[in-house]
Amino acid sequence: MNTTIKIGGVTEHFNLPWNLAVEQQKFTLANIDLNWLFYPGGTGVMTEALRSGELDMAILLTEGFISAASRGLKAKVVKEYISSPLGWGIFTGTSSPIQSIYSKAPKKYAISKLGSGSHLMAMIHAEQRGEKLSLTDLVEVKTMEGAMESLTKGETQIFYWEKYTTKPFVENGTVRMIGEFSAPWSSFLIVATDEALATKRDAIEKVLAVMDKESAAFLAAGDMIGLLCSRFKMSEADATTWLRSTTWSHDYTIRLQGLENAKNALVKIGSVAQDLNVAELCDSKVLLV
Q1: Which member of 26, 192, 232, 241 has the lowest number of beta carbons within 10 Å of its beta carbon?
Q2: How far is CA 31 from CA 34, 185, 204, in A?
Q3: 38 — phi, psi (to 5°)?
Q4: What separation in angstroms does the CA of 58 have from each of 100, 108, 152, 172, 257?
Q5: Is the pTM for the entire model greater than 0.70?
Q6: Side-chain-facing half-sphere of 260: CA atoms under 13 Å
Q7: Structural domain spans, the chain
Q8: Count of H helices and E strands in the chain?
Q9: Assigned fold of 88-181
């Protein structure tokens, strides 16, 4: 009898290997009924879905998971997914007077949800610039599309999101990209709830084994550029650049320093406590290096 695993991810190019594996029934062949659920709202929404039991697993931003775990999310990292840092774009509305993130003009920040990457990275980058954001500076817009509407109406002036996903809105004149930001830790982690690990560990390990092979096959395939262009509206040049700059993890090691870097950045914005032990957020099968 197949085991059902409910897993969530964002609707972005990073998760194409998962989508292809589902379409090709790779999980079914491993006796797993994998229910893949898209979450346009991102990490903040998925951590709530994990908390409620709506999901067994999710692909989460590193900083978003650490923040949620510090606030009681009962889940563990079971594998690093994307080892390379995420390239964030910083966006404003086309008619906005803001020309730089360093502008001293009053700014409201669009975020998908409190605890999301768009929230945490805005806070982390502000702290690095010597600024301090408060809750009154943040406006929840739920999705990237909600952010585009908010920026266009002038309700908000700044939005952080993965730059290639947002590029079509730059090209069609909805928004302008006024900067980029990247942080020294891995982009995405694969996380499973404590409940799922206790009751479905064998199935989770099968899922990870399938994806270990699929991410390697994804990089080796000759038609991935075309798929990225057709499915995610990426240009051939952008798809090529993104593939060259993205590193998938093919083992079960995670750099402890990367997790510490993310924690320390979150400590500075008051999102987690200094005494948080990030090693304890990892499953026993993960090897910290």
Answers
A1: 241
A2: 9, 34, 11
A3: -85, 135
A4: 34, 29, 31, 31, 22
A5: yes
A6: 6
A7: 3-85+185-288, 88-181
A8: 11, 12
A9: D-Maltodextrin-Binding Protein; domain 2 (3.40.190)
Token pair, residue 106, equals 């009053």
Give the pair of three-digit tokens for residue 11. Answer: 């609707």
pLDDT band of 220, cuts 50, 70, 90 = confident
Specify the CATH architecture of the domain 3-85+185-288: 3-Layer(aba) Sandwich (3.40)
Q: How confident is the model at residue 219 (pLDDT cuts 50, 70, 90)?
A: confident
Q: Give the CB-side neighbour count of residue 37, counting CA atoms within 13 A.
A: 19
DSSP state of 130: T
With a cut of 90, say whether residue 35 has pLDDT above it. Answer: yes
Rounded to whole angstroms, how far apart are CA atoms 287 and 139? Answer: 38
> What is the C-alpha to C-alpha distance for residues 63 and 264, in angstroms, rounded to an integer?
10
Q: Secondary structure of 136-185 in the HEC alphabet?
A: HHEEECCCHHHHHHHHHHCCCCEEEEEHHHHHHHHHCCCEEEEEEECCCC
**Which tokens belong to 46?**
């998925």
CB atoms within 10 A of CB 126: 18
Can you give the pLDDT at residue 52? 97
Look up tokens 């197949």; give the residue: 2
